[in-house]
């Protein structure tokens, strides 16, 4: 088996590195008399369908029996209140913790004690869909949140007979199982936004006072990505697909971006069926440092509903929906009101059938990585040479937030922010990710590009343009030109989006954007005692670009 669920008696001691105080607290709670085990997806569906807060629509689930659901299963709706996005401000990592004034152990023990006064459910999933990487995961949620449990078992892989057999044959790792405890009803005066408490070194987390399903999904991925990182994989918050070309060769690409950047659009696009395409996943996967192969972590998709009106054919693949409306159609059926009419960030868990070309493992190495940015100083497509520049620009990925996040009211959603490798869920030092990606570029001869899916020259870069540029690359029809004086950068000309390197205002903007990246790198040298500091070569590479621009502007 992959992860460790049981221990020899002589190994249950304080020298065992799998145990920690937080892990023991959380795992212990799973065995209480107030906790009922839910073993199958069908059982979870019935619980969710009958829960007081659930709306059972009249929309049938597509091929329910193939998913392990009742033949008459319907799409279920659940709305979680005022907060409809992830609250990053609630996250605390024990391995990074510098707030000595707060005793999180006491808070967690008290939360677990108070939880004993109500009924809970627990269930099991597998995270990682190939025998080379499969981790056993356990989740515990209170009665009243049956829809949360059901969505969780849909999003990850419930342990059925097929996956139990796969798991038995999977590669073993010296890692304890994942344990995720959740009490959305918890409250504490010191944590008005809730508390997402992680002990990533020991594969355990507690989600307290938070009801948005994305918190549970990303908490699990945070732990799984950390396990993968410790075991010679590169952890990826992005989408991956593989094209089959006319000569039967393959081109495998990954696109990294925050929610709302175009990551799913790029990954799931069919390109007018010009190529046979395999999709690994649009959100979470890992890449082997050893051979460059890739593994998906989840079978389903947690997608925004804003692009799917009720008439869309994609609705048929919905399994559950969160934070959406319901109305009656002219056939007297309860149906969905999507497109974020009710509120921002309406969501759905979609089945794997949404991509009939879905695979869980790609054995071929990746050919190219695309950093998706919303930096208006960059043309629609930029190529980065070598291994240092691709890693530096990945570590300083400039983008914008979306309604997927529960932001402070004072934060402007249109502000440019830097989110390294488009992964705000990293629980280990940023410098380690930097070196992991740099190794990928150098060892496996991977190309690197930046896709600007925002605005350039005050013109929106449309999805149609972005997809056409990707097609030129995979067909080897792209002819790049130098990015002005910047060594190691080139761009693909696009009509109406040409950079003018003689325009002083534009060159000043380009310099400002590079300075923003350098400032970010320098800040990381001191914040949190340098936990996320980058190698010196990162700041040197960005400094060289800035000096080149300064010289050019004289």
From TrEMBL:
Keywords assigned: ATP-binding, Kinase, Lyase, Nucleotide-binding, Pyruvate, Transferase
GO biological process, one term: gluconeogenesis
Signal peptide start and end residues: none
Pfam families: PEPCK_ATP
An annotated Gene Ontology molecular function: phosphoenolpyruvate carboxykinase (ATP) activity
Catalytic activity: oxaloacetate + ATP = phosphoenolpyruvate + ADP + CO2
Gene3D superfamilies membership: 3.90.228.20, Phosphoenolpyruvate Carboxykinase, domain 1
EC class of the enzyme, as a word: lyase
Biological pathway: Carbohydrate biosynthesis; gluconeogenesis
The organism's place on the tree of life at top rank: Bacteria
EC identifiers of the protein: 4.1.1.49
InterPro entries per record: PEP_carboxykinase_ATP (IPR001272), PEP_carboxykinase_C (IPR013035), PEP_carboxykinase_N (IPR008210)
Family indicated by similarity: Belongs to the phosphoenolpyruvate carboxykinase (ATP) family.
Protein name (record): phosphoenolpyruvate carboxykinase (ATP)
Native organism: Vagococcus elongatus
